[in-house]
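Researcher: Please predict.
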Amino acid sequence: MIQRRAFLLASVALVALPGTLLAKPAVKGGKSPRTVRLSGARAPVEVIEDELGVPHVRAASLHDAFFGQGYLVARDRLFQIDMEHRRDMGRMAEAFGPRFVAADRAARLFLYRGDIEAELASLPPDVLECAEGYVAGVNARIDELAADPSQLPLEYGILGIAPLRWDVRDLVQGRGIGMGDADDEVRRTMLHARGLLDADLLMAPLRPAWSFTVPEGLDTAAVSEADLGLLDPANRPGGFEPLQEAWFDPETRREDRFALGSNAWTVAPSRTATGRPILANDPHLGIGRSSPRHMCHLSAPGLDVIGAGAPGLPGIMQGHTDRFAFGRTNFHIDQSDLFILRTKEGDPGRYWHKGEWKAFESFEDEILIKGAAAERVTLRYAGGRPIVSSDAARNRAVAFATVAMLTGANSRFAMIAINLATDWASLRKAFKLHVSPTNFHYADIDGNTGWQTIGFTPRRPKHDGLFPAPGDGDFDWTGILPVEDMPHVYNPAEGWFASANQMNLPADYPYRERIISFGWSDPFRYDRCAEVLRAQPKHRIEDSIALQHDVQSLPARALVKMLPATPSAEAAEAAALLKRWDCGIDADSAAALLYEMVLPLLSTAVYDRVVPAAARDLVTSLNLAEMLRMLAGPDKRLGDDTAVARDALVDGALAAGWKKAVEVGGPDPASWRWGDLHRVTIEHPLAASNRAIAAAFPKIMGGRSGGDWNTPMARGFNPRRGFDVTHGASYLFVADVGAWDNSRFLLLPGQSADPRSPRYRDFYPKWLAGEMQPMWFSKAAVDRHASTRQVLAPA
């Protein structure tokens, strides 16, 4: 429990500290820029902040350009990047005490244990130079705050901690812990042991169509959720419960994994009104906590790039250079596998592999703990694969193979290489550093467009990744699929392409020989985007902006088609309201509110009808696309007469949904508004568990929103926890390729995470209104719209 003194100090700090404390403004107009002396810069770096708060960094070297980015990210988001850094490096307990020891142990298991110096030496020299600059910039801000603690983000005084300094080696060593689809593998195996494997397809349909094949030698009856070990968040509690609550729920974990996608489309000159390409992108990430993007413009000899980066990751993830625009969506590669190892009886330090008993690789580490003695931990690996669980009594251990732990998987350098590229050919070389699964969109000033899927894809010679595999060596990965063998197109004849996390393997792709994944998002967002783009022979910037904010729901269309011709008296009003509806999930729509009540109830009713009782602890929900396909029928799982069964199910959901709508919206349907429930609230990640944090960081709230999971304007929510927006596009941009100053963007809620800054929530109303803002790029436009200027000079 927070002490009363800390709570009062935080409240006083919020009121007393001026906004100038976060980042002292330079002189308006740029005549006398303020100079800041910093260790780490090699030469003076000019930073111009425009009227919208976007910093434009002009440097004489690549190192100093990225130095500027690191410094500015730390200026605006230090606590955010510091917590992520601590978490990834397994250093939370030293700041917050014993409750973080389990999380730290798990994080350290996923630190790279190979030759870090060799990894750094393998990087292109210019990429390493940029990374070193970025780290130096972060450390320069930390040093600046050490000299003037009054500028520290408020969290540090409240929590009584100090930020960690960075090292470029951390970018190699910290690989991050993630479950991948390990829980899916375990679930399928347990269902197979019960003879209920087909039930899994109700929740997780295989795309493309595929037949289940259990790896030879796998004892499916022996597999249980205990095999997940440290991968299960319940076994590595993070200590800050609000940050982890959703991850304790397996079904919510699954929903979140497929919700964290994006939309992107690229339109060739032949199909635009200007004769220039247009590229649009809106990454769908968490909404409600820290903003996952930060804007910056970096200029130096050989570099000119603007857009949004991930705080703590060098470079720009979505934006454009002076030569090309680029965007990204999730490609859903299956990048992990569980391997079941047989350990030696009486000697659990050895496991059977390739016809011999091998010793686990072991590393001793020490976790420092605030308020307690340090704890020694032993971390074990099998061929570099972390051992996530073990059971000596059963002669059993489980290794987790993930591409993130491979030699050369230096994902944190990939965006730098992409930012330094100049064309399609140099980009495809840069892609070899890119580990995470991505649809990469490209459009250049010469009118070329391209789509390339990137990310490390393991070669599985004897299994498909849908089940755990025996760890005796027969099923080991045999390398990574080359970028050239991944799906791609260049200047397609159609003149446009789009990705929205749907299964987008080309029809002629040899997916049986090059297994990538069988788990993809439902295609509703893509299908709606494709519907709009096909109908626009002369696409405009305004059209892309409108499509990013489109709330037309294809699942709603499907439901409306299924409304019973003669509904019951209890369902009649609901059916009549939905029949008059245009299927837009608008904030001011009564029908949208009703639909959002009806759909979960319909899903529950169908679930109860088709999911075997013996499978319900594992198959916890229905896939929406599969449910709608089943209802459209005929499908014998609903009964002998699909149409009669469907009408009864829909009628019941309509009646129950109407009652729920009255409960949440009031008795008068004329007053129902979806946006009254579906609101956008942003609060500090620790506000719920720390009163002082809550007082110092006021909620940003009140905004109403349309949309849901399945509309192009994706505004996801978890009905188990209410209707507030939890996922969506906090950053959006549209590039007018070649006429760069015409490009537009939005960023929720603002650049800064400090409430003392005027950039704390300045974009919140703009984002809610969908008012895209200019992304000034040319020197003339930036100078014309300059708000402040400063120089970061060597100390």
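Model: The two ends are 42 Å apart (CA to CA).
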